[in-house]
Every structure is written in C-alpha cells, then in structure tokens.
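Q: Sequence in, structure out?
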Amino acid sequence: MTVTFRTSLCDLLGIEYPVIQSGMGGVAGPDLVAEVSRAGGLGILAGVQVPPEDLRGMIRRVRELTDRPFGVNLLLHSEMRPPADVAAIPEDRIRAVQTLLNRFRERLGIPPTLTRPPAVPDLVDAAIQVILGERAPVWSIGLGNPDGAIVRECHARGIKVMAMVATVEDARQVAASGVDTVVAQGSEAGGHRSTWVKRASAGRALVGTMALVPQVVDVVRVPVIAAGGLADGRGLVAALALGASGILLGTRFVATRESAAPEFWKKNLLERDGEDTTVTDVFSGLYARALRNTFSQEYAASGAPVLPWLVQRGAANDIHVASLKQGTGDYYPMWAGQGTGLIHDLPGAAEVVEAIIREARAVVADLPQRVAL
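A: Exactly. Output:
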C-alpha cells in the first residue's frame, strides 16, 4: 500500500508534501527555503525587520534557486506598527536594563553603556509592499491579524495567506479576515508566541499542540497546519489524525546544513532536549521559547525590567553579536521548541522532508499491528 499524504493543503499551496518550514529569523535564508521547496515541501523566507530592498533581493534569489512555491514570513505584532518610541521609555528603566547588561558586556570584553537603545525602524508596511510587488506565492504571518483588505489584495495578486495563532479565539479572528490557512501553534513551539498583544505572563496562551489543533480545526473552515513539538514522521501522522492538513517545523530545520544558524546553536540542539527550553521575554521583549543559557537565566534571576519588543533586542544586540563572534551560545538567543530531544543529526533540508514522509508512511503501515479495531 502506497500512502501519498496528499491533503487539501497540498492542493491549496501547490506543494507535493504537507511539510512546511518555519520562517524563523536568523535561520531561514534563500538556500534553506529553496531546498525545502525543491524537496516538495514549502520553504518560508524570514522577512522580519529586513530592509525592503534586501527582502526583494532574497525573494528573487529563492526564485533563482527553485521554481517551486515558497513563502515569506512577516510579524504583525501590535508593537511593530508603529514600533515603540524609545525616547518615551523612562530613564530609570533604561538604566536598570543597561546596568544588568553591562555585567554581560564585561565578561565578553565589550564596552559598557548606559545610553538608550537605537530607535526601531518601521519596516512592516514596506515589506508588505515588496511581497505584493514580487507576488510571493505565500505570505506567512505571525503575531498578528491581517485586515481583510490586505488579504483581498493578496488574493487579487495570486498570493495565498497563512496566519499563525496560539489560541482558538485568535484562530476565529484570522479566519474572519479571509486567510487561506491557519497555523495552530502549540505551546511546545520554539520562537515567539504567536499572539498580537503581549500577555500578562509567560504562562498565558500556552495550549499544547495536541489540545489546540483539534479545537482550531473545529472552529475554522480552512486547512489547519499543526506546529509545536513536531520533528518527524510520527508528528505528521499525529497532526493528520487531529484534523490538521499539514505540519510546520521550525527547530528541526534549524539543525540542517542549509540553515543560517550559527554552529553552536545547531550543536546545542543535538545535545539538549525539550526540558532545556524556557519561555522568556528577555531576548526580544516578547515571550518566546528558547534554549536556556546564561543570558536568560541570570536576566530572569536579576529582577531587571524588560524593554518593549525589538527595543529589548536592540539594547542587547552588541552582547548577542559578541557571543556570536566568540562562538558561544551563552549570551545568544537560540530559539528552540520542545521537540529538541527528537533531533539527533544534521542532515540537508531536503533529507528532512524526505525522512518525514518515509517515517510517516512506516507509521501508517504499522498501525494495523498496533491498533485492534
């Protein structure tokens, strides 16, 4: 018996397999995206805070590498349109953050500072215009709800719209905006929690994938994609059993040869497991799941405040850069989901897609021996 896994999502997006690679910032460049798409999945380019001309060049580079469908990811969080006004942040809050960060700077051998972080550039609307102008096959949205007008404009240009959510209510809202497919992001997922308003604590909007996916399937009429803690063919079969039409993987594709992630990030994924992750806002200002490290643990223990989204990242950027240059992940944001413990190798991205389908077929073939109906 041959199992094809041809779902409604495949027909919608024009892909062979219902396997989608997340557009994780700092990881998903043209090489990774093209390789996933060439293998029959859907690669998604990271477009967050990328200057418009650079984003246009990245989209065109993907097209040079493959003629298969691909996506471009943007975040539409409420703190991005417009970005926080750095000048309006109280001086004592800036000083408290920089005083703590100076502790890390001293260890890394970089100059201390108490100055305000740089202003955050407002790039979202320009990036949307690039996606429209380039007619990217898929626009992938995280941390926000596109309005119906922009969705209709995408459809007029042949662009499919995909929106990620972390709650059932948010799923209802993006579906009402007319998106073509909804990604249900379970709490196990790496990276930012896909809500468009920052919740009161790290423990909010944390519904597990197994519980969230069928609830979202029940309330929307478009294909649903499962995300969070998935890394192999077993996850694909489980997601389909829950009513999803496909899966979206982030952490699994970080640990591939084409990923732009630093080698120490990839190495950590191979050596650690899901218990080594934490949901924290100390890296960017918004809650996100990442591998625990010195930066996240000492920052949380210090009681220091956190600046608004992207302002926080800008304040610590010199620390992250120094950590990167010194080849250590101790002070670098290494986004990772709880599926980390399922990752044991560093293959090519196409091999990941192929392995997931092969494993899923084996699982389905084995089910009659496991289940007596």
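The domain at 1-82+121-258+345-373 is CATH 3.20.20.70 (TIM Barrel).
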